[in-house]
Design goal:
alpha+beta, Sortase, Chain: A, 3 helices
């Protein structure tokens, strides 16, 4: 009789423990669900978040677009019907002029032109030629340059590189060694114009300046 009572009591204790465990588990699951509901935005809240993200994206896009526009505001893509591919600036002689894509009798009367070589500011020897006419956008004052003077070349993406003059000399028209593209992987430029009387060519060689 006593053993039956003990067994019954044990069963009661086990039942109570099971009920207690189930109750605690229920409470824990409820708390977890509540936390998830609080951390998950409602449909309306998610819509507001999406709108704000779109605004931020639009602002970033506009900034990028505006930067590109600002780089080209004062940089024409053509000059009197001829494509412009870059700009030359030589502070020593107060020269700012645009580089035209083609070299011909017609284009040389407009501005300086690319004679041969790589793309603007590319690796190699970019050769730029121009008349020594007494025009503000020509090479009339190249003869005033000295070794160590700065020349700045800007491409159509707004990238600007400084070159330092390292050699100045004169050649006859048939002497074309100055056009060589052997630069040992460096960026170089060669400016070419006529001397007085057009008997010889004035050559100004410059190489990229590194800080």
């Amino acid at each position: 009789m006593k053993s039956r009572i003990i067994v019954i009591d044990n069963i009661k204790i086990i039942c109570i423990l099971l009920i207690t465990i189930i109750f605690i588990a229920f409470i824990v699951i409820k708390i977890i669900n509540n936390n998830q509901m609080e951390s998950t935005p409602t449909y309306e809240e998610q819509e507001e978040i999406n709108v704000e993200n779109n605004k931020i994206g639009s602002i970033e896009t506009n900034i990028t677009t505006n930067n590109k526009v600002e780089r080209k505001i004062d940089f024409p893509t053509e000059l009197e019907g001829t494509e412009v591919i870059g700009k030359v600036e030589i502070p020593k002689i107060n020269l700012v002029t645009y580089i035209l894509a083609e070299t011909s009798k017609e284009t040389l009367n407009k501005s300086v032109t690319k004679l041969c070589g790589p793309k603007i500011n590319g690796v190699g020897n970019l050769c730029i030629t121009g008349h020594n006419y007494n025009n503000k956008n020509m090479f009339k004052d190249l003869k005033k340059l000295n070794k160590g003077d700065s020349i700045f070349i800007t491409d159509m993406k707004g990238n600007k590189i400084e070159y330092l003059v390292y050699d100045i000399y004169k050649v006859y028209p048939k002497e074309t060694e100055c056009l060589s593209q052997e630069t040992n992987g460096e960026r170089q430029i060669t400016l070419i114009t006529c001397t007085s009387g057009a008997i010889k060519r004035l050559i100004v060689k410059a190489t990229e300046f590194y800080d």
